[in-house]
Amino acid sequence: MKIIKQKQQLMCITMPRFFPINAYLILEDSFCTLIDCSKKGMGAKLIQAIQSTNLPLKHIILTHAHSDHIGDVALIKKAFPQAQVMISATEMKQLQAGTKGLTPLPLQPDILLNENDRVGALLVKETPGHTLGSISLIDTRNQHAFVGDLIQTAGGAAIAGDKRWLFPFPAYATMDQKLAIQSFKQLVTEPITAFYSGHGQALLGNQNETLEKMIARAEKK
Ligand SMILES: [Zn+2]
Questions:
Q1: How far is the CA of 53 from the centre of ligand 1 (A)?
Q2: Distance 8 CA to ligand 1 centre (A)
Q3: Distance between CA atoms of residues 101 and 8, nearest Å
Q4: Domains along the sequence of the chain with CATH
Q5: Which of 104, 107, 141, 169 is 20 to 30 A from 96, alpha carbon to alpha carbon?
Q6: Which residues contact 44 (CB under 8 A, 6 or more apart)?
């Protein structure tokens, strides 16, 4: 696992070469929050990363219910039993309805999230499309947006559903591409300084041309 350290976050990149999956640790003054858990088998490494912060893990937020984001959430919760597991209320409803393509959770979440909920410094934004209950989190201290699979940058920057042949997996798993484009357009109206997705490197928020190209590319399809 590769870790990119910044002042207020750790970007944990599992399997950087073959199937890059990102999880993020958000560092606050007295606690930290884990966004996504990568895939199964990565729990021990993520637990090590959490311990390396010397901060208690207070929240585990799942951006959506796919296996490469849920991973070893149960193992991580076992290691940090005080951490509250969160997913969006919409995604939970979809799971309960047995919606195809979602990965059932191995545990009961502690808190269900809705638009504009706050989790420490993070602000919840509902950004459906990749799955119907997908959420993004904006760190209100630095305007970093953690968007799950709403966009990918591995294989080329793209909105969910816009297939990139070098890394087509997020597109295969996308439920509603039109909705994803709409969510992304809504999200870029916020003053985002950087986008952090589930797969690939960060995308700077001030690259209007890149963002517009991503939207135009997706809308063409
Ligand atoms: Zn996904």
A1: 27
A2: 25
A3: 33
A4: 2-220 (3.60.15.10)
A5: 169
A6: 72, 75
